[in-house]
Amino acid sequence: MSSQSNRVVIFDTTLRDGEQSPGASMNLEEKCRIAALLEEMGVDVIEAGFPIASNGDFEAVNAVAKQSREAIVAGLARATKADIDRAAEALAPAARKRIHTFISTSPLHMKYKLQMEPEAVLQAVKDSVAYARSKVDDVEWSAEDGSRTEHDFLCRCVEAAIAAGATTINIPDTVGYAVPDEYAALIAMLIERVPNADKAIFSVHCHNDLGLAVANSLAAVNAGARQVECTINGLGERAGNAAMEEIVMALRTRPDRMPYETGIDTTYITRASKLVSTVTGFVVQPNKAIVGKNAFAHESGIHQDGMLKNAQTYEIMTPESVGLNKSTLVLGKHSGRHAFRDKVKALGYDLGDNRLNDAFKRFKDLADVKKEVFDEDIVALIDDQLIRARDRIKVVDLAVVCGTKGPQTATLTLEIDGDSKTTTAEGDGPVDATFKAIKQLCGATPRLQLYQVHAVTQGTDAQAEVTVRLEENGKTVNGQGADTDTLVASAKAYVTALNKLLVKREKTAPGDMGA
Ligand SMILES: CC(=O)SCCNC(=O)CCNC(=O)[C@H](O)C(C)(C)COP(=O)(O)OP(=O)(O)OC[C@H]1O[C@@H](n2cnc3c(N)ncnc32)[C@H](O)[C@@H]1OP(=O)(O)O
Ligand SMILES: CC(C)C(=O)C(=O)O
Ligand SMILES: [Mg+2]
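The line above is the sequence of 2-isopropylmalate synthase; the predicted C-alpha cells follow.
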C-alpha cells in the first residue's frame, strides 16, 4: 500500500499507549475482551502492549496474539535486542504479527534522555530494525519525538530503517507539539525526499497536548500518510492520543475533502467506547465528539424542531452509524412545544391543544426548577393534570413553617367549588399541619390509611410523588400528587383523594360537601 492508495490502515494502541494513561491499567482478561472487539470492528493492527515492560504485559500480548485471526498484533520494543527478543517471543503464536521498534531522533531526546550521539542513534536504527526483521516479516519503526527532529537527520534515519527492512515508518508527534500544516508538510517532505519512501507505509501517531491530535492526523493523511495510530476514546499518555472514533467518522463524513477508506465497521464505535470506559474507569465527557452522552442529544427548542422536521438540520452523522439506536431530544428549560408534543405523544397521551398548552406551561415551570425533565416527570405531570381537571377542591397556595423550633404550621389556600378559602393549622410535623389545614377548610374527617412518598427520579431536585389513602364510611380512595416540593405534593395527593371521596358521596348524597 502506497501513499497513492486511498486505504488508511487503522492501528489501535488503546492497549499500549492507552494503558500508559495513569490509572488506566487493564488486566489480561480485559485486554483480551477489548482486543476481540477491536478485531471484530475491523481494526487492522492491534498494539497489544510492550512485552519487556512486565510479565503481565508479556502475558497480555501473548494472549492477544493467540486469540487474534485477522488483525495484525503488534508488540512494542526499544532499540535493544532484549526488547525485540521479548516482543518476538510474546507475538510468536499470532497469525499475523508485527514488531514495533522505536528510538528517539530529536536533538533534545538524543542528548538528554538517551545520552547518545546522532550517529550512534542512526546505527541503533539500522541494527534494531534488521534484528527485528530477522524475527518477523512485518517491522514498524518509529522516530520518537519525530515532529521535533531535524529534517536531514530524520530523512537519514527513515531511509536507513526502510533499507534495514522496516515496512511501516511512523513519525510520532510524541509531545503533541505539532500544528496541522506543519505536520502535513513534514510527512510530505519525507515522502518526497527519502529515496526508498515508496517501499514503506508512512504512519502518524499524534498526542493531544494541544487538542490537535485528530486534526494533525487527518492533515498527515492528506499529505500521504496511510496508517493512523489512535485509541478508543482518545485514551493515552497525558492528554491522550488521537481518538479512533473521531478519525474514522471524520473520514466517513467528509469524503469530499478526505477521499480515504478504513476497514472499520463504525456501528461498533459506541460499544467499543463503553467497553474501554468501563474497563479503565475513565468516564467519557458528555460533550466528547462521537461518543459523548450529548453527541446525539438536543435540548434547545429550535434544534429539536429542526430535528423533528429533518434530522440533517442538526446532525452530520446518523446515530445508527456509530451504533446508537437514535438521537435523543432531551426535554429541559430550552425545549419548545414541538418537541414537547412529540414526547407526550410518544408517552401514549392524546391531549387536545388546550390541555397540551396547559401541560407545556407546567412543564416549563418544572424545567425551571429541575435540571433535567425525565419521561417519568412528564407522565407524573400529565396524570396529575388529568386527575385534577374535574376536581371540586384545588390547591392554590401552601406555605409551611417547619424545623427544630416548632410549632409546625401550614397556611393553606384552597379553591372549593370556585371559592378561595385560607386557613392556618398547627400540627405534629409539617405534613400533619398541612393535612389538618385541608381538613379544617373542607370540614372533612376521613381516616388516613396510608401516606407514602417516593422520588420520581434521582437527585435532590427530583419530583416527589406522594400517595395518600383515605377511608370514610367503609369507602377507600387513593390520591396521588407530584411536585418538586414534597409538602405541595402531599397536599395535592390528599386533596385528590378527597375529591374522589366527594364523587363517591355525590352518588349517595348529591350536593353534600362534607361533615
Ligand atoms: C513515547 C512512548 O510512549 S515510549 C513507551 C513508554 N512506555 C513505557 O515506558 C512503559 C513501559 N516501560 C517500562 O516498564 C520501563 O520503562 C522499561 C521496562 C521499558 C525499562 O525500565 P528500566 O530498565 O528500569 O529503565 P527506565 O525506564 O528507568 O529508563 C529507560 C531506559 O531506556 C532507555 N531508552 C529509552 N528509549 C529507548 C529506546 N527507544 N531504545 C533504547 N533505549 C531506550 C533510556 O535511555 C533509559 O536508559 P538508561 O537506563 O541507560 O538510562
Ligand atoms: C512509542 C511511540 C510510537 C510513542 O508512543 C510516541 O512517540 O508517542
Ligand atoms: Mg505515544
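Note on the example: The chain has three domains: 9-280, 297-386, 390-508. Residues 17, 172, 174, 205, 207, 237 surround magnesium ion (ligand 3) (CB under 6 Å).
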